[in-house]
Amino acid sequence: MGRYAEPLSKLFVAFARLGKHDKVLDVGCGPGALTAHLLSVGAEVSAIDPSPPFIDAIRTRFPDIDARLGSAEELPFPTAFFDAALAQLVVHFMTDPLVAVRQMARVTRRGGVIAACVWDGPTGALAPFWDAVHRIDPGGEDEALLSGAHRGHLTELFEAAGLRDVDEVALAVEFVHPTFEEWWEPYTYGVGPAGDYVQRLDGDRRAALKAVARDRLGGGPFTVTANAWAARGTV
């Protein structure tokens, strides 16, 4: 998702109203798309992720930041330590989103910002993939049912966590794929729900899915417009 996450980071940080000298925690940092943009605007960044390969990657990429292995539900940071805590494309993978957002609020000072964004289920970055899946497997369970994947889900979560002045908006990014193969290849890596789905298919069904997706998208170049929901609240 890095190819979509990088342009989304710019919109997300602007929405969160963060900038130079803000002390920010990147929750579920992955390989560092959001961290990179936060650093580019002058923020002081710490990061955490439950995946050892991602933490290894972000430590290599940004050796001077505090990057820790851990979960959003048990953040290993002091109370009221940050000015803001952000979670980009992570809420829908949290074991307990409500506990995690409360933890984000705990480690953020009073008056600080908590913000999260997730892809919209029907029109997010993975929508073309799941559309192809449903043409051959109408009962295939996609990410549209995950936390935050529809308008209002993040607002409900933030308000349940006790945040104030919650605002939710739609963000949209566009990415031009030069070829179909460039779009398809990442789905074969077994990463995330989409990758897991492809890995479970036998050779014939994988070929059928690929053919349906190619028929829908064409050989390239083509543009994917990915829509996301973003929410911001105050501690």
TrEMBL record:
Domain Methyltransferase type residue range list: 25-115
Q: Does the keyword Cell membrane apply?
A: no
Protein EC:
2.1.1.197
Q: Show the coiled coil region(s).
A: none
A molecular-function term among this protein's GO annotations: malonyl-CoA methyltransferase activity
Q: What is this protein called?
A: Malonyl-[acyl-carrier protein] O-methyltransferase
- Write the record's keywords in alphabetical order, separated by commas: Methyltransferase, Transferase
Q: Which family does it belong to?
A: Belongs to the methyltransferase superfamily.
GO BP field: methylation
Q: From what superkingdom does this record's organism come?
A: Bacteria
One Pfam entry for this protein is: Methyltransf_11
Among InterPro entries, the record links this protein to: Diverse_substrate_MTase, Methyltransf_11, SAM-dependent_MTases_sf
